[in-house]
Amino acid sequence: QLQLQESGPGLVKPSETLSLTCTVSGGSISSSTYYWGWIRQAPGKGLEWIGSINYSGSTFYNPSLKSRVTISVDTSKNQFSLKLSSVTAADTAVYYCAREDNTGITSPAIDYWGQGALVTASS
Amino acid sequence: SSELTQDPAVSVALGQTVRITCQGDSLRSYYASWFQQKPGQAPVLVIYDKNNRPSGIPDRFSGSSSGNTASLTITGAQAEDEADYYCNSRGTSGDHLIFGGGTKLTVL
What we know:
- The structure holds two protein chains of two kinds.
- By secondary structure, chain A is mainly β.
- Chain A is built from no helices and eleven strands.
- Chain A has strands spanning 3-7, 11-12, 18-25, 34-41, 47-53, 59-61, 69-74, 79-84, 93-101, 109-113, 117-121.
- Chain B is mostly beta strands.
- Chain B is globular.
- Chain B starts with a strand and ends with a strand.
- The A-B interface holds A 37, 39, 46-49, 51-52, 60-63, 96, 100-101, 104-111, 113-116 and B 2, 29-33, 35, 37, 42-45, 48-50, 54, 86, 88-91, 95-102.
């Protein structure tokens, strides 16, 4: 059974960079079928897609966050990572890592999710 | 535009049928997926590719699409279906994903 687990600091100071890593177990990150993504949810709010990456490093980003986001992959560790720069209080959220299955007809199916990691941007 | 619009809240009597809708320009080109999220839990995929259910999802969940609107129908709603539901698809440019604002379903 595929499992994803987020890890990283739970507290980030405003103007600094948020960094999270997702470790994938029970399956290989090195498949052309899948992209590996980040999604966040501010307290009491809806879901927001941040971006995703495949095993070769091809990325897609949310246009509204693109200038601050970097997603990278380390296939040797079966991990992918998120960096979000210049954070503000508005970036406080639960951050989920997830698998996007691109075998769909028109849109990927986000079929596996991590449990989520709360990151608070505060001094 | 790259937006998906959902009604904030919907209610249904136990055992009855409810439809949750999602509207957006990109739905004319791309199918929607649907997610169920209960408090304190990660979202769970319930419908993808318009009307496909992942393994383990009850067949009372179904999806459909017409024009710029995607719908999730729960036929015979159960108490455990009370949750937030989100639609998801590609944006109009096709190079990013978007979520609807979510619908809170109450089972009466």
